[in-house]
Amino acid sequence: MKWDILKVEDLYQGFFKLCRLRLSHGRFAGGEPLVVERELIRRGPAAAVLPYDPDTDRVLLVEQFRVGAIESPHGPWLMETIAGLIEPGERAEDVARREALEEADCSLGELVLAHEYFSTPGSSDERISVYVGQADLSAARSGIHGLVEEGEEIRTHVLPADEAFDWLDRQQVDTAFPIIALQWLRLNREMLQERWGSG
User: Fold this and answer.
1) What is the predicted pLDDT for the residue at 139?
2) Which pLDDT does position 150 carry in this prediction?
3) Does the active-site annotation cover 150?
4) Is 152 annotated as a binding residue?
5) What is the 3-class SS of 86-100, one letter each residue?
6) Consecutive 10-residue runs of the chain (199 residues): their mean pLDDT?
7) Three-state DSSP class for 37?
8) Domain range for residue 26?
9) Are residues 91 and 148 in the same domain?
10) Considering 32, 71, 149, 150, which one is annotated as catalytic?
11) 99 is in an annotated binding site
């Protein structure tokens, strides 16, 4: 089916950009195209990564304040994977590595793409690349990280993979990045231990 953008109106430019689109698109039932107006948050692509140590069978998660969860019954501090926006000219893998250093002081080895998806395509153009990254977490400790100039205060949690899966099952993890990464790891942990393990 065909679609066409008829008009774009910029409404707001801040950390994200908001615009209004007037567009037309074909109908499943056929006939004249449907003409609609929709607001679109231009957030752009992002990358997320779950560091995993196959030798200690531990993962690293981060916890930080999220304004979108301000009315959550659990509070706005969410358990997540490391993540960041992809700037023009950057590769998703490079962003995952950079953010791991900034948010958790964690160097990554090989990255495996778990999944790519649109986060909220009804209102945003954000597309996420989710990775699981090879990491040595044998000496890693929970701590506070992030870039002060970006208003970040990020607490890291290094924990056994089975404990992270338990957090997931008890809905203590309730954002898409870590849900997807942890579910993927649960299905592929043995493969990564054979591929990345030292013995």
Assistant:
1) 78
2) 67
3) yes
4) yes
5) CCCCCCHHHHHHHHH
6) 94 93 95 95 96 97 91 89 94 96 93 96 95 91 70 87 96 93 98 89
7) strand
8) 3-42
9) yes
10) 150
11) yes
